Amino acid sequence: MNHFELRGGVMHVEDVSLPVLAAAVGTPVYVYSTATILRHIAVLREGLRQAESGPDGPWIAFAVKANPNRAVLATMARAGLGADVVSAGEMLRALAAGIPADRIVFSGVGKTADEMALALTHGVGQFNVESEPEAATLSAVATRLGMTARVAYRINPDVDAGTHAKISTGKSDNKFGIPYDTAVAAYARAAALPGIRVQGVAVHIGSQLTDLKPLEAAFERVGGLIGELRAAGHVIVTADLGGGLGVPYDPSHPAPPSPGDYGAMVARVTRGWNVRLMFEPGRLIVGNAGILLSTVVRVKEGSTSPWVILDAAMNDLLRPSLYDAWHDIRAVAPAGERFVANVVGPVCESGDTFATARPMDSVVEGDLVAFMTAGAYGATMASTYNSRALTPEVLVDGAEWAVVRARPPIETLIAADTLPPWLEEQA
Predict the structure, then answer these.
(1) Which residues carry out catalysis (predicted)?
(2) Binding residues
(3) Is there a contact between 161 and 212 (Cβ–Cβ < 8 Å)?
(4) What whole-number distance in Å separates Cα of residue 25 and Cα of residue 5?
(5) 395-427 exposure pattern, b = at least 16 Cβ within 10 A, e = fewer
(6) Which domains can be identified in the chain, with CATH numbers?
């Protein structure tokens, strides 16, 4: 469910009219709904209540990569969420938004020594370590600082998530984690390292999962490993089950499993683990909470279908070009007529295509359209390709709204370039 709905024939976000936002901010622009974010957090928490997770309850760490806007993260902080980060920059964003350091999990395969030192200094709650060389580097950094890093190894369970190849992370030929079969030996070596306190196990097999079976298979392997590690003398107090539960992009497809279904599966598989369960939702919380609002530049005749050319482009929303991802495209003020069209942007690439032969609301020049389910992996993946300004972002809360990232003038982009002395003299 989301809070984008037609009122009087015009799409609103909560109590704010989208044409009002478009007139005030311009397009393209990302628009986020606070009510939808909070509802998704509540629904997830309710689903996870079924699982045993210790006296403190589950540790829910929002995947910052999905949407790192500080206002969005501050909304998460006020709701009591932690953060899953994969860079020092994401960690600093989470801290700036008010998320306590001890609720931050630092993941990612390429943590540098400098990032490790910064995270240790701030006191992050856990490092999800992805290789033995990384553990050795973290040990050296922690020892130099006179600190102890709380660590979980990310396990690669060799489970096919059944999702797009570019967002699958749990197969043996993916770059993430350590092999399941070598985990016990890796934990033994990690426990012997100074400055390291092994405390947990982590797994994450991919994103936009629409079937619980791969997740269940991965979690069962984690449960078996916890038993082996405890038998070997390790104290395991956390189990990070990652994220990845899918959201409904295409209304014609079956709905993904609900958080309630997911929670029931987690409760069944993890019963008796006696750990604090950790989760890293991203898309599940913000996906349906955001849209990309765009204006039709013109409609051009095509050989088979008309071309709807928008002012939004692949640099604003990369997912369709990168993943062949599907987004529902709706007229903000639908007239009731439909047609079949190709929807594209103005960037000088054939890949700047959002939809081909798409049945959709009929639109004409000047109309507004909304890309639905664009709150995750949208603005965060935007670029300035073709010297286009970064897309602004707006957060709505009831009848109130605010620009939470302004559209920078193109002069700012140009000014970031500097000329070397031999060209400066000729300018």
Answers:
(1) 348
(2) 244, 280-283, 319, 323, 349, 377
(3) no
(4) 20
(5) bbbeeebeebbebeeeeeeeeeeeeeeeeeeee
(6) 34-285 (3.20.20.10)
pTM strictly above 0.85: yes
Instruction: Of 186, 152, 156, give the one whose Cα is nearest residue 169.
Output: 156
Q: How far apart are CA 3 and CA 115, in angstroms?
A: 38
How far is residue 157's CA from residue 174's CA, in Å, rounded to a whole number? 11
The residue annotated as part of the active site, out of 231, 348, 416, 427, is 348
What does the pLDDT profile of the chain (427 residues) look like in tens digits? Answer: 689 999 999 999 999 999 999 999 999 999 999 999 999 999 999 999 999 888 889 999 999 999 999 999 999 999 999 999 999 999 999 999 999 999 999 999 999 999 999 999 999 999 999 999 999 999 999 999 999 999 999 998 876 544 444 444 434 455 568 888 899 999 999 999 999 999 999 998 887 888 899 899 989 999 999 999 999 999 999 999 999 888 988 888 888 899 999 999 999 999 999 999 999 999 999 999 999 999 999 999 999 999 999 999 999 999 999 989 999 999 999 999 999 999 999 999 999 999 999 999 999 999 999 999 999 999 999 999 999 999 999 999 999 999 999 999 999 999 999 999 999 876 5
